[in-house]
């Protein structure tokens, strides 16, 4: 709480700096910055990724996700995409996280993994701007395409 109070004092002090904006607008901008910083710090304490980033594990092993998350509301859903060298990650989830429509996890150990109406399962939860999706994805190993692959996954994405 001390950090929030200190940040508010700093924000109020910054509002007095010269600018073409009114003092009220400067204070609103400063408080918006403070709120964003506090939210980011709170997310970090909860173990959530930074805004625009993601964390993913497949079969308990952490996977590298280097792209930036793009979150786009589409009707009642949130479409999340992260471009990457491994094909990227994509998620279509209800904005309130009550339903997962599809998940694409890219290629993991040479296997393209996904969840869709054709197979796999996933559930989601939402904490602020962070979506957490977990379940079982399916794929096919090109070395043995007749034997389906099923892998547990957990994904946390914080929208910008």
TrEMBL record:
User: Keyword Membrane, does the record have it?
Assistant: yes
InterPro entries found in the cross-reference section: LpqH (IPR008691)
Alphabetical keyword list: Cell membrane, Lipoprotein, Membrane, Palmitate, Signal
Q: Give the organism, scientific name.
A: Mycolicibacterium fallax
What GO cellular component term, any one, is given? membrane
Please report the name of this protein according to its UniProt entry: Lipoprotein LpqH
């Amino acid at each position: 709480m001390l950090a929030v109070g200190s940040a508010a004092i700093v924000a109020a002090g910054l509002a007095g700096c010269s600018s073409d904006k009114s003092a009220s607008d400067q204070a609103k901008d400063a408080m918006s910055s403070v709120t964003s910083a506090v939210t980011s710090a709170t997310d970090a304490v909860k173990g959530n990724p930074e805004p625009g980033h993601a964390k993913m594990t497949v079969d308990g092993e952490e996977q590298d996700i280097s792209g930036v998350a793009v979150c786009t509301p589409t009707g009642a859903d949130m479409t999340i995409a992260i471009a990457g060298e491994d094909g990227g990650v994509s998620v279509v989830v209800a904005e309130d996280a009550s339903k997962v429509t599809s998940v694409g996890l890219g290629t993991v150990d040479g296997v393209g993994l996904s969840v869709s109406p054709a197979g796999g399962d996933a559930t989601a939860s939402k904490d602020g701007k962070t979506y957490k999706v977990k379940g079982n994805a399916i794929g096919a190993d090109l070395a043995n395409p007749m034997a389906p692959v099923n892998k547990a996954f957990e994904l946390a994405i914080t929208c910008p």
